[in-house]
Amino acid sequence: MPNWGDFKINKCMSRGKSQQASVLWNILGSWEDACNRQDATLNGKYFSKPSRCITNTNEWGEFDDVPDSRCDTNWDNSKWEQIEGCVEPGIAKYKNDLIFQHDSIKDIYNEVCKQTPGNIGSFQFSGADSCIKYTTPTNGTEKIIGYVNAPTSSCDMKFEQITSGSCRNDGIREYRGKIIAPQGINASTGCDLMINKNIVTTLPNSQTMVHSRCEVEDDGVYAVWVTTENNCKIKYGDLIKNSCDKSTPGFTTTYAKITFPEYLTASEVCTANPHPTLGVPSKCIQHTDGFWYAEWVIPETSCVNSFESIANNSISDCVDGFKQMIKKFKTPFTNSYTDSDFKVVCENTEDTTELKLLPYNCEKDSNGDWVAKFKVKCTDAPVNANANAPVNANTDTTVQYLYIGNLQIPLTSFNILLGIMILFIILR
Questions:
Q1: Given a cut of 50, is residue 262 above it in pLDDT?
Q2: Where are the domains of the chain?
Q3: pTM for this prediction
Q4: Cβ proximity of 74 and 16 under 8 Å
Q5: H or E element that contains 129
Q6: Among 199-203, 390-394, 411-415, where is mean pLDDT lowest?
Q7: Rounded to the nearest 10 degrees, how much is the dihedral formed by the CA atoms of 225, 230, 234, 237?
Q8: How far is residue 386's CA from residue 369's CA, in Å, rounded to a whole number?
């Protein structure tokens, strides 16, 4: 029966794996056929046949990727040496010699070096970032050196002092800090890298955040943080609704106390900080209590001058193509007007709901109410379906009407006499 002789290591193929070879003995028949059918178990791994067979003075079988501790690599983690200077904010470069046994590791040094895990303090890594093969000048010994970038506080960006800026009118505050860069790092580049890598800083207001931008000044580079702070926000108090104002009929003034940082002016508050429901104030004024108030002028139906129809006294006879209509003048500003004011305002107020006209005269009636008189074309006058008695345009006396279908007949003395005569003729 064929059998394998002693196995020897040819070379390391990768970290922890070797290529091993052996001569096949006691072959009957074809050497190559026998080799390709011969299995083996090497360091616990089963092979159904060799990776290849080589025929010379003997028949050799080669087996690839055999588990082999002689091809292992390691670091002495106590010997990592920090190279002078920093790679980037918070990061330094360290170097160390790779530990290996079999000399053939040198042929694949770059691969195995980058696959060898280790740790630098509490920082753990899966392999070196870069590797070189180095020959010692004194004795010619070849070494494999691995380089690892690892965090260290010695490379942290520091700030000379972080100072608080003034509030801005949109409720934010800026902080600024001059950068002190560690050796090997340009302050401007390092400032930008801190943003890209989301490196946070604790500010004097206890917020922890990444700075928003970097600014280069004559004396150095500054990081700038933009924060939202409640004490920088404009605050509105409760809304207070004013009574109607005769200077703005149809509108009323609503106001609210405002508090804001001292550096702001009231005009800045008014233009840049809308109320959540009323929007930007019309103006901001300081009241006698010393506080500032925002004011809004908003539509208010109860603040409109208007007219109200008068029952039993609304439409006169048609005279010269016109009828007279009287309505009561209503205003929310009763206590603000003199009699002369009432007359002027009334005669300059249009009846927008029905007649679409200005009154031609306004006067106070016997009850002390102000009434407005309108001249309406007979064809345009509204029909009083309830037969309410209107005012006669000539005498201002009450006139009774007789309705026959859609026909309206004034019951004057002449018309009554004429009716009696017609009735007498019919009865005869």
A1: yes
A2: 3-71, 73-154, 157-232, 235-300, 306-397
A3: 0.53
A4: no
A5: none
A6: 390-394
A7: 170
A8: 24
